[in-house]
Structures are given as C-alpha cells and as structure tokens.
C-alpha cells in the first residue's frame, strides 16, 4: 500500500505558498503549474490545508496565503490534515486461516513490527517542520 500523493502534493503546495507569497497571486492554477497536477487537485488539497488552519484562501481567484508561521507546521501535521492514510499504514489481509499455525499466529508475530514501523515514520514526520525545508 502506498501513502497517497495527497501528502507530497500538500507539502509542495505549502512550500510554494511560503516561497512565492507576496511575489505572485497564489491561485490553484499557479500552484498546479509548479506541482504538475490539475488545479482541481490543488483546490481539494487547499481545502484540507485551510481546514487545518495552515493557509487562508480568498474566494474566487483571490489566491492563498500562509495562516501560520512555517515553523508551526510539521510534516506529520500535513500528513494528518490531508488524510493520506486511513487508519493504520499497513493493511492486514482479512482472513488468515486459524487452522494453519502461520495463519493462527500471524497477527501476534507481525503486528508489533508493523506498529513499530508506523510509529517510526510518524515520529520522523513530527520531527521535520515546513520551515526546515523551505526552498529559498
């Protein structure tokens, strides 16, 4: 399973908004040209970023602007804001055979490792702030 591209599109969107604020009108068309996606995708991402309180968006073609300092947003905050994973990162197959010694034990064997891997990913994302990775 992959983390959806919503995460990287959202990070790219935020970085472009911080980089180009005051220099360009930050519309979905402008941002989409930087990201290489359809403006509709950017508008959806911007809705999530606005709902999270990271950006302000003016109606129509007013454009976007940062709502908070870039050091107040972590990659984990973005990851959660755009719902790029539903529930756990690793999705388990539904019906391991309880009559098989492997099937009967698979959750007990594998679940702690998968949980640890997800925690490691999330902890790394919590460590990095948007301000740390701004493009000059």
Structural write-up:
The protein is mostly helical and 136 residues long. Helices cover 51% and strands 6% of the residues. The protein has one domain (6-133): Arc Repressor Mutant, subunit A. It is built from five helices and two strands. The chain has a two-stranded antiparallel ribbon with strand order 1-2.
Please sum up the structure shown.
With 136 residues, the chain is mostly helical. It contains five helices and two strands.
Key features of this structure:
2 strands, 5 helices, Arc Repressor Mutant, subunit A, single chain, 136 residues, two-stranded antiparallel ribbon, elongated, mainly alpha
Mean pLDDT: 92
> Could you tell me the number of beta strands?
2
Q: What is the class in the CATH system?
A: Mainly Alpha
What is the terminal-to-terminal distance? 33 Å
Which range best describes the helical content: under 10%, 10-25%, 25-40%, 40-55%, 55-70% or over 70%? Answer: 40-55%
Rounded to an integer in angstroms, the radius of gyration calculated over CA atoms is 19 Å
Low-confidence stretches: none
Question: Based on the structure given, which CATH architecture is correct?
Answer: Orthogonal Bundle
Strand content: 5-15%
The major β-sheet equals: 2 strands, antiparallel
Pattern of helices and strands: HHHEEHH
Q: Give me the secondary-structure category.
A: mainly alpha
Number of domains: 1
Strand order of the largest sheet: 1-2
CATH fold topology: Arc Repressor Mutant, subunit A
Number of helices: 5
